[in-house]
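Newbie here. two chains, one complex. Structure please?
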Amino acid sequence: MRQGMAILGLALVAVVLGAGQLLAAGEEIYQIEQGFKPIPAIIMLATMGVYIGVGFLSKVSSTSGYWVAGQGIGKYGNGAAIASDWMSAASFMGVAGLLYLKGWFGLGYIIGWTGGYVLLLVLLAAQIRRFGKYTIPEFLGDRYDCHSVRLIAAAVTVIIAITYSTAQFKGIGLICGWIFGMSYTSSVFFAAGVVCAYMLISGMTGVTRNQQIQYVVLISAFLIPLWFLVKKAGGAGILPQLEYGKIISGLMEGKVASGLLTGEELAAASKIYLPWGTGGNIYQFVALVFTLMVGTAGLPHIMIRFYTVKNEDVARKSVLWGLFFIGLLYWSSPVYAAMGKFWNPLGGKEVADVIILSAPELAGLGQAFLGYLAAGALAAGISTVAGLLIAGASAVAHDWYATIFRPDSTDRQQLFVGRIFTAVLCGIVVITALNPPALIAQIVAMAFAIAGNTIFPACVLGVWYSKANKYGALAGMVFGLSMSLIAMGGWMLKSPFFSDSGIMPATSSALIVCPLAFLINILVSNITAHKISDESADRSDNILRRLHNLPGAVTEAPNKKSAFGH
Amino acid sequence: MATRERIEVNFFTPSTPNMRAETRIAKIILTIWLGLSFGLPLLIWAAGLGDPSGLGRSFFTESRFLGFPLHYWLIAQGCTIGYVLLCKLYCVLWDQKVKKR
């Protein structure tokens, strides 16, 4: 068996090497062709069909099924769903490019995006599951016993959902254009149609099942080319994630595919892998890492995943698996970046943008694999869009309509309204995606700062500080949100204070703002402690009892319970 | 609902044995997390202060580990593998806590 594999492996190497010699190293292998490609197109359409079929098979008929999948998802399943919620078209295609351009400094994104899950796990995951309801605005609104807190959290959730999904369509459009030769407009309708179809039928149950399938598709499509690429670059092709170390060490000495670099080229190629070779400094690195971490731990569509699991034990273990599944991608992205450098050490943004899409061609994997990779990238895009839309729609339909506007509505009405708002939100996303306002890119870049400055402090203090009250939460959230927006404005006006090399870079503002938001919440809560009525404090205490498994927690009044009944 | 005694939750002064056990685990994990996320980059930065070109060349960038430049491996894989292990450690400590009670 082993021998057979070895021979097969050797044969593959021979084929790959043979194909490799036809292509000269350089720009030309980093180009992608537009236009209809029949085999990849069939593969892509087949995977889309599977998603809709799965959605149809997981049809739901209750609000709990629609918003939180009936709270019956297991640890591997939820882990995979966390991972594919997380891995957007941008992280599928963009992170390798980012690392290609930013070298060592770019690794800050990787540790920021993975380290945030540790914070989430340790400080929030289990407690949020014990709370047991459906959304983050609901958690904040109930804990602080305040509808304004609920509405701010819901507004932030919706803004992040819309802008983030809009940004996904950039990647989706690129893929559809590449495989089907579609225009950007038709790609938007195509992808939105697929997402909307299975979401409306199945709600969170179908979204979660699909996300599990999508994870398998996207990660396998992402990993397979690596073995071929590493072999082609002269490695043994056993574990690319370890073998690319030699290539990076070689790059620092100027060893590339075309030979040995010298003089200025050598300096440019080796500089990028030195800590500050791409212009950053330690403050910017730490600020970036911190912001991405608290942002990750504060993103509502990530936190919502802890409501979908069976119990808090599964909530904890699913973070472990989710992080491992995300890790598989982030251990591999740098390999692509290093390969890019190896074949094209001095390329710019054009090379960085298509590193992933051009990989199968470079690895000599053929047309069918091209389709699979595209299906993987598309899976990454639409799984993120689906997770975001569910989070955004639940913020409107559940937190505003069912809780504030019509608290006495029935389960059936709420489900209907949930579907309507999901469709409305999908429509809004389609419109903004077709005609993206210039602001979108900025807000997406700021999303981590906004979530980390607004949602994260309110959630952590809500769980771990019983004195935190509605006034403190409001003050902290308003401060966090407005500082993020001011920073964004300053950044757009190119104020040096908020620029990438400034004192408070807008995209990394949480290092300064987040601790202040904590402080303001604590201070204001202590000053206003006497203003809280006994009834209100009782309600907050009741939530805290539930969060920490303290004795004496009571479920709400029966009239409210029937509205949320399972 | 009748007025009851206010409950007290504070991460740094946990009020019940169960909460104390929970925050003890959380503190262990967060300390290691802090070291990985910020300690390591600061170490690499401090070691590179001596480089006159300002690019941060140091012992870390010159040494090799598993074929990688050490400073690259520590962040790209050391940290991220560390986070996954931290999550595992958290789950293990938690299960131990549950068993003890």
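Moderator note: Chain B has a mean pLDDT of 84. Residues 6 and 61 of chain B are 55 Å apart (CA to CA). Thread marked as resolved.
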